[in-house]
Specification:
20% of the residues lie in helices and 18% in strands. The protein is α+β, with helices and mostly antiparallel strands. A three-stranded mixed sheet has the order 1-3-2, with helices on one face.
């Protein structure tokens, strides 16, 4: 197929930092964690990316985070929820 064009956006809000780590480095019951990005403290989580539950955990964490930001919809767009590429 080669390189395909994909839609892009000029800016997007940063709401959550996800640190992709090996499964042994993910705590079973982690406490709240933050990461500093450009001087702004954001919630963060450690996630093992290749576990079957990784997409569900990410959706839950992002949905919970977005629910606390005024003016930002708590549900990601349908194409993100279903994991399908945008057309």
């Amino acid at each position: 197929m080669g390189i395909l064009p994909v839609p892009w956006v000029g800016a997007a809000p940063l709401a959550l930092v996800v640190d992709l780590v090996p499964p042994g480095e993910v705590e079973r019951l982690p406490g709240p964690a933050t990461a500093d990005v450009a001087g702004i403290s954001l919630p963060s989580l450690r996630l093992a990316p290749f576990e079957a539950s990784a997409p569900a955990k990410l959706r839950l964490a992002l949905g919970a985070r977005l629910a606390h930001i005024p003016g930002v919809p708590a549900d990601p767009p349908p194409d993100v929820r279903q994991g399908s590429p945008s057309t």
